[in-house]
Amino acid sequence: MSSRENGSQLWDWIKAIGIALILALLIKNFLFEQYVVYGESMMPTIENGNRLIVNKLGYNIGEPKRFDLIVFHANPQEDYIKRVIGMPGEHIEYVNDHLFINGKQVDEPYLDNYKKQVTNGNLTGDFTLEEVTGKKVIPKGKVFVMGDNRLHSIDSRHIGLVDQSKIVGEVNLRYWPMEELKVIK
Questions:
Q1: Which of 20, 35, 133, 134 is 20 to 30 A removed from 178 (C-alpha atoms)?
Q2: Looking at 56, 82, 142, 153, which residue is catalytic?
Q3: Exactly one of 41, 56, 142, 156 is catalytic; which is it?
Q4: Segment 29-42, tens digit of pLDDT
Q5: Is there a catalytic annotation at residue 41?
């Protein structure tokens, strides 16, 4: 093989690696992001140490929906994972461990097993949206979020409503630990 052919092959490899790196950066910055969960606020749905894939594209073309698991910028240093409970224009209230939206009871089936484990009271304490945020209804461009581990979650009851512009994306996949691989919906 001549030095010219070697140089051509080397250039082909450099181009292929460069294209792969550019594609990886585009995917990470605009489509998907990996997150590691720290803390217990989403137990038992998501556990401390789980690794997740977050879809960053979906909310650029659509809106979050009730009960979506989202990652958002809670402050400049931290991102939180929580569940969307309330949407713009809605009034939220919890009474005797039941969610009421605009006066109608809404089931939260993802909490059924966890509620059975709580022996001394309710999983979710009673409150109204107005008591925790000072708002009668959730304003446009905001959502009300909560962790599934209601007794140990810093969420909209503490930090207020989440601005939709702070949402990174929707959790789509738990890929670690491997035995708990699961598409999240």
A1: 20
A2: 82
A3: 41
A4: 666 788 889 999 99
A5: yes
